[in-house]
Amino acid sequence: MSGHPAWPGLRPRHTTHPAIWATAATVVLLAVGACSSTTTTVSPTTSAVAAVSPGSGGHRPTLIGAGSTFDAPFFAVAFTRYQQQHPGVTISYAVVGSSAGIAAISAQQVDFGAADVPMTAAEQAAAKGGPITQVPVDLGGEGIAYNLSLSAVSPAWAAKVGTGKTLNWPVGEGAEGNGSVASTDNSTPFSIGDIEQAYSVGLTLPFAAIRNQAGNYVTPSAQTVAADAAQKPAITPTDFSIVNQPGADSYPISGYSWALIYTHQPNQTRGQALIARLDWLSHAGQAYAAANGYVPLPADIRQLAATMLQQVTGPTGTQLLS
Hints:
The chain is of the alpha/beta class. The chain is built from nine helices and ten strands.
């Protein structure tokens, strides 16, 4: 997740986490080592996304996506369940990061992208296929995992490190993606990194407790992320941040992730399959969120997802959401 302000404080505390990797994915999830696949995979790079670009449709469409590592654990389970219920659809998702996902959908290399923050107006204007519809698909918290014997607060964080998809780390060694950050933290003494809470499963990493707006130190959990989200029930793709909301139990580094699709789908069959999958993911598919380290979308956000999907049309201009 990106775009967070300076974290107000750290206090070490251990937490427990659900075992999310018990279910093996039958969809392809590239760059997540804990996942297995029965389909062909490609290298987890931006250029490799082009190698699995969308096909021409047909009766058994393969939906190609790319983007956020934050989404990968949820997608692994949810897409597997969807394919079991809808064997006529195959889903492939390249775990390449939010920026690469935005680049892939903008270049029309994939059917859908996934990003931890919606596309900016400039990014949307650069998309080759016209207007982009952005749909909230999951809710979670970004934990500060550490391999330290103590922790400290830096008042200069905002000025020197900053915010955004890429931070200006003054020293140290970086790692790309939640999975890589988690494994690097786990094997590197005196390291610290921010990862989606599901990625700490099976590792010895604790999460730091973060001081929220109310002055309380809280760790990421379903309860604390939900408490934060409840403080801002109405969001939009242009007013989406729920970081550091008020409330005694709110976990301050919480947020939604978004699926990115073209508003005007060029192929009726693929478009209908895509909309049906996203409608399921943002509604019935939320049943698989809690057991896998995420928070089910609140009712208001599920309605927002439905509203956004109603905007999507096929090549003849008809609405695809049935």
